[in-house]
Amino acid sequence: MGFCKHLGECGSCTLNLPYYEQISYKKEFIKELFGQIYSGDFEFFGSSKTGYRIRAEFGLYHEKNDLFYTMNGTKQRHLKIDECLKVDSKIANLMPHLLNELKNSDKLKFKVFGAEFIATKNDILVILLYHRNILEIQNELLNLSQNLGVNLIARSRGKKLVFGSENLNESLLINGREFKYTFESGAFIQPNKSVNEQMISWVLKNIDRPKDLLEMYCGYGNFTIPLSFKFRAVLANEISKNAIKNALKNCELNGALNIEFLRMDSDDLMSAFNGVSFNRLKDINLNDFDISHILVDPPRAGLSKEVVRFIKNYENIIYVSCNPLTLKENLDEICKTHKVVKFALFDQFPHTKHVESIVILKKYK
Ligand SMILES: C[S@@+](CC[C@H](N)C(=O)[O-])C[C@H]1O[C@@H](n2cnc3c(N)ncnc32)[C@H](O)[C@@H]1O
Hints:
Blueprint: H1 19-34, E1 42-45, E2 55-63, E3 66-71, E4 79-81, H2 89-103, H3 106-109, E5 112-119, E6 124-130, H4 138-148, E7 151-156, E8 159-163, E9 167-174, E10 177-184, H5 193-205, E11 212-216, H6 224-228, E12 233-238, H7 241-254, E13 259-263, H8 266-273, E14 291-296, H9 305-311, E15 316-321, H10 324-334, E16 338-346, E17 356-363
Parallel strand pairs: 1-16, 6-7, 11-12, 11-14, 12-13, 14-15
Antiparallel strand pairs: 2-3, 2-5, 3-4, 5-6, 7-8, 9-10, 15-17, 16-17
Bound molecules: S-adenosylmethionine (SAM).
């Protein structure tokens, strides 16, 4: 048994090693995978070992008349979870109270099957999932959110009820400066806040001779807003309408005035650079941008061949990746024209084999 009594059994934390050995394990794995394209130092940024996850999801399982948090365990389908050491302390404190409230109300307990938690500096949001018509328990849900002092969303097939705010407010400290963000419960968020701060700070410190930035897959502006203060102008695209809505609010919150956000699929953005006209671009002249850097932070599947071909046009590439395998596949191609100059690992997920990488590449002269 390691740092948690469920380690190795709940299916989430699987790396049963002392933390310093986890670091060696991850560094060795990455060195082996990327050794042929990069012989420099792999910087490593660690995390606190507990309380680091600001988003967590659990099943809720009914047994006889009782109710438990569960995970799809490695040996058992419904492994009972009575603690999770990796979640933010606000989530850890709330979990037993929520469970008690649910257990004590036949109406709230009936056909509830999942709970998701998101915690930011000052806010906490709970999402409860039901296999029943939630409109019948509106009053009970309202009381629950008031009793617990949390924002609450209840969902069942085709229905959603919101008690309090669906938006969360976060603040990040990046190289001594505070940045404020707002985002919706469905947004992609970097799950480890302090490592996220380190990632953004590291990128900022490693930007050389900035002119304009093109950022693809920008979400609600997590990297975009702090980076915008380093560049003359920024063009950033993202497929999610809600994320772009929040990115615009985040510009206001931080006084960022030089960013053009595009609600656009990356394929369309590339077509636009190839001369195809889009209504959404009617007020933007892509030729006005003098792009010195491109930052990409794609989903786990990595970049398509077309995006890889496109980004190779730019001198400086910053590639943020949560999947070393697709990163390797993409870098094999990018490294035909670019050299890896920096490679850093960010331990967003201690006790798991996952590792986040940021690679900085420069075009060969
Ligand atoms: C790994 S997240 C990164 C978000 C952001 N950089 C951050 O740090 O929060 C990837 C983002 O890509 C967006 N996305 C996925 N497919 C896309 C596509 N084809 N075109 C544009 N954006 C896409 C997702 O909505 C998501 O916000």
